[in-house]
Amino acid sequence: MSGSTRLDIVDRVARLTISRPEKRNAMSGDMWQALLRHVCRIGETPGIVAVVLRGSGGSFSAGGDLAELSSSDPDHVAAYRQLAETAVLALTELAPPKIAEIDGPCFGAGCSLALACDVRICSPAAHFRIPALGHGLTYEPVFVRRLVQAVGAGPAGLLLYGGERWNADQAAAYGLVDKCAPDPAAAVGQILTWLRGANVEDIVSTAMSIRTATRSR
User: Fold this and answer.
1) In three state form, how does the secondary structure of the chain look?
2) pLDDT tens string 160-189
3) CA-atom Rg of the chain in angstroms
4) What angle do CA 172, 58, 29 make, to 5 degrees?
5) Measured distance CA(38)–CA(24) in Å, rounded
6) Which of 26, 61, 99, 165 could form a disulfide with 110 if both were Cys (CB 3.0 to 4.6 A apart)?
7) In this predicted model, what pLDDT tens digit does every residue of 47-101 receive, in sequence order?
């Protein structure tokens, strides 16, 4: 099975759920395509106050599909990488605040997805790793820039050069996540309750101001 990426829009909140439990939600090409399609739909839907990105089955995402990335067909690999980059960029550029609700493994492209979000909340069971070099892969500069903005150059090197695996407490200490909560769904729910009581235009304006300030650092 190639897995799925589901979109549910309820009460002005768009929830994107990554589901491929047998592969710890590793992203197949079909899943990237579905994510891109859903993100475009969110962008066309008025009144959305927030976007929540999460995984199913106790995992956020184990990253890219290594079987597709190691294909003997270079055109397939290039197309897969381009599709993934396009989907992450589209997610990044969505106007409403984006919240990553992280449980279990958040590896490689999973970290890229998380870093496309404005707020990242994880469970104590979350763990993080970016093992690209070990698989003969590299990341686009835009992803590396987001990572360095979040954690700093030195810690980014620990993940990228050293292949370090961070637990939830380490990720919070370095700034890869913003909060480690015993119940991340409840923590996200508190934010959503607050946002539902605010004006959409004010929410988007605030999100844009924070992003602008982050880029100028």
Assistant:
1) CCCEEEEEEECCEEEEEEECHHHCCCECHHHHHHHHHHHHHHHHCCCCCEEEEEECCCCCECCECHHHHCCCCHHHHHHHHHHHHHHHHHHHCCCCCEEEEECCEEECHHHHHHHCCCEEEECCCCEEECCHHHHCCCCCHHHHHHHHHHHCHHHHHHHHCCCCEEEHHHHHHHCCCCEECCCHHHHHHHHHHHHHCCCHHHHHHHHHHHHHHHHCC
2) 999 999 999 999 999 999 999 999 999 999
3) 16
4) 95
5) 21
6) 61
7) 999 999 999 999 999 999 988 887 778 888 899 999 999 999 999 999 999 999 9
pTM of the model as a whole = 0.94
Tokens representing residue 216 in the block: 């100028």
Residue 133 sits at φ, ψ, to 5 deg, of -60, -35
The answer to whether the beta carbons of residues 104 and 58 sit under 8 Å apart is yes
Report how far residue 206's alpha carbon sits from residue 217's, in angstroms, rounded to the nearest whole number: 17
Interatomic CA distance for residues 105 and 20, integer angstroms? 13
Written as six digits, the tokens of 40 are 């475009």
Phi, psi of 127 (to 5 degrees): -150, 155
Give the largest CA-CA distance in the chain: 52
Pick from 67, 156, 63, 160: nearest CA to 114:
63
CA distances from 199 to 4, 49, 143, 185, 205 (A): 32, 8, 31, 23, 10
Give the number of residues written for the chain: 217
Please state, in angstroms and rounded to a whole number, the distance separating the CA atoms of residues 22 and 41. Answer: 27
